[in-house]
Amino acid sequence: MQQLASYLSGAWQTGRGRARIIHHAITGAALWEVTSEGPDMAQARRFAIERGGKALQTMTFIERSAMLKAVAKHLLEQKDQFYAISAQTGATRADSWVDIEGGIGTLFTYAGLGSRELPDDILWPEDELIPLSKQGGFAARHVLTSKSGVAVHINAFNFPCWGMLEKLAPTWLAGMPAIIKPATATAQLTRAMVKAIVDSGSVPEGAISLICGGAGDLLDHLDSQDVVTFTGSAATGQQLRTHPNLVAKSIPFTMEADSLNCCVLGEDVTPEQPEFALFIREVVREMTAKAGQKCTAIRRIIVPLAQINAVSDALISRLHKVTVGDPAQEGVKMGALVNSEQRQDVQESVNKLIAAGCEVLLGGEADLSAAGAFFPPTLLYCSQPDETPAVHAIEAFGPVATLMPYRDRQHALTLARAGGGSLAGTLVTASGELAREFILGAARAHGRIQILNEASAVESTGHGSPLPQLVHGGPGRAGGGEELGGLRSVKHYMQRTAVRAAQRCWRP
Asked: What domain of life (predicted)?
């Protein structure tokens, strides 16, 4: 068994001390030892800034865009090795495509945005000249300049490729180097992609660093020119947000956390309408893709009381047909959770929901002694969602969702907002009036809303798919942060300054 190396200060290096083991999600076999005790995190940060940061900041936006495109092309050529490693994490080929080629596609998107919409300069004028005097001799403009620090990206286990690349693209376009801290459970895939990036020779030395294992005292060495992002559980994110050094130095912290996302069936939809079948398909897909290990997965299924039986019957019928097993086997539609620890966590969350009063309609119990980290598609029912706060607070991060009834439109909106802030929500309806009412009543609690009907379903990208052009994030429990959103996210890694001067002195 090999030790998974970190890439710090321009060199691959292994740590020491007690190691964590990465296991194969399907077979349970031990694959890698991981520890990062030992490397000098202060030196790693200095190297990233002094070598990578300085090199990136001398490049224009057009040159940085070309760099992103070169990296994306190289990774696409290497994709087969990433798919092979992704299979170790329990992912199906379709799951891996979203992670690997979806992430590479995000690089291509940002390369295109930068080359088309940003200046061939290192200074980004954000707006037009703003006159400040009657004679027009004094004016102002907002400009964006690169920060002189490093971006520390602490990522989740579920998307080891996309989760890194969707942050790297705007970071590099902004002219900042990055230190990547992947979740240990799938760090071998992130490490393979980072190695491919380093070996490509497309990025300056120090532009990318990798920590496999714990981050040690890295956060203690950051200052106000640095940026920290976090993707993962709400509980861990809240702990990091209050790190004394981050608070003392007002270091920007962007958090994207798991949330209790919902899918609502409009009161206008009956089983005879095409929207009903679309609703069932959307829920089943979101429950089973990545074995439910998605921060945007549908956790709460909100349905008119009159349609509860029809919806539960249809969902159970479809979920019964989902074959769970080794994705390498023909006919398997859903793979495993990432490891046995995650399976245990999901089981404990399901048990808590049952104890809170939820009824098991399908699944609900895994074989915790099995080598593979499999968990069956699980559908719960909560008859009293107003009196059961657990269904809006406890997330089983697996193929688990809870069905619940609503009385009327306002009740549906109340339940949709009850998650305390969500990344994504979907309303399935054929009514424009209902759609507008839902947006007005639910948008403030959601980072993204999809209105799904027969017309939009033809080309819909789905409830859970983040797109590089659109913001990804959400209020409250979802973290209160924003990622992606086209060039919006580049600005998170830059400093906005209002510059006032005589017009003739202005260099746009």
From this structure: Bacteria
